[in-house]
């Protein structure tokens, strides 16, 4: 959020709200619309409106007010403010279009919770608008969901290049998801019905890489007892993914350059020229440009591969996506093993975010699978994770050294753990229905939604 308006005549309320908005916001104040009518012509992202300051008892007055602001910005969000004795009026404001409400006197935690929830809702809304684009196939929506600016730019690049036949070079450390991005490009290309052939160049001996890529005839070399079709033939009308391209021999690089230049090649032991129209996606964790400068990799091949480079970030550079990625991997594990584990113990996400993740996404997936196998409950707990992962974390303090914490902190950690488990069981029991879950918990649906959001629980995950 950038531009915020607080319409309230009480300076204490205004100061408390502004102090909890963060430094990235531009905040304006108004004692009332009658005092600053020009604000109706200004675009805002978030508006707090004290219902008392509206100076009207008309039932639809609030609705009329927010409609005026939405003429300037249809995505603006509203928080209704009211004294506690006027809670019903605040609830009515929500029915008329407010996104949330606060009753004062309130504390800082309430303000932060409401602001954080609104920011999450805004992000989800824009993400859903983005995901509704006909370009993205529904079976990839969980993968492309991201809150990371760098990943959003990468997805836009993929959206641009996927429908073309341009060669793509995926760059990034081991485990950053280069293979996944290659499949994403293929799945959203015009040749998605064709084959996707993946070759891990680093796993094939130099003596066999040419045979693997281009094929060979019977008798072409010792042990060639039959004709072998190469990967370029298999990938005709499809996509050929060359992983760890920096490991192939200089001899293979020469033949690969020829294919990239004119689409022709020949099998080992045969001079017949064959054609291929396979689309090439290459990937490497090496610095190909540096290798080309030192002669370890052909410069002309590097230039052919480097038509559309995409640099993938490390997991440590996109930690805001870690909770969602953990959910995606957990869902896959549930499908694979059938345990139906619903989430992570409170505080584990903080521990995971504090870890360096040298193995990136692959390491996260492997650690979660190990914990999943060890787990006997319905939530992944700290004791199922490697000790090195949670050393020094809040979870470890709570579990291993709780007696050294102040009672209030240790109690709060225990309360959070119980609260998450309790909410998860209700959501599971009622198939993700907030109303039914809240009724059994003897709280309002709004309160239940806030608590679920606090613990990162998504009702969609529990729908049958």
Question: Your description of this structure?
Answer:
- The chain is an alpha/beta fold.
- The chain has helices spanning 11-19, 61-70, 87-95, 108-131, 141-144, 149-161, 178-187, 206-214, 231-234, 250-262, 288-294, 299-305, 322-337, 348-354, 360-374, 387-390, 394-400, 407-429, 434-441, 445-454; strands at residues 3-7, 26-30, 46-50, 77-83, 100-104, 168-171, 196-200, 215-216, 228-229, 239-243, 264-265, 274-275, 279-284, 308-311, 343-344, 379-380.
- It has a five-stranded parallel β-sheet with strand order 2-1-3-4-5, with helices on both faces. A five-stranded parallel β-sheet has the order 7-10-13-6-14.
- The longest helix is centred in the N-terminal third of the chain and has 24 residues, at 108-131.
- The chain is elongated, with a radius of gyration of 28 Å.
- Approximate shape: elongated
User: Considering DSSP H and I runs of 4 or more, what fraction of the residues is helical?
Assistant: 40-55%
Largest sheet entry: 5 strands, parallel
Count of separate structural domains: 3
The Cα radius of gyration reads 28 Å
CATH topology of the largest domain: Rossmann fold
Order of strands in the sheet with most strands: 2-1-3-4-5
Which class best fits the helix and strand makeup? alpha/beta
Name given to the CATH homologous superfamily of the largest domain? P-loop containing nucleotide triphosphate hydrolases
CATH architecture name of the largest domain? 3-Layer(aba) Sandwich
The stretches of 5 or more residues where confidence is low (pLDDT under 50) are none
Average pLDDT taken over every residue: 84
Distance between the termini: 35 Å
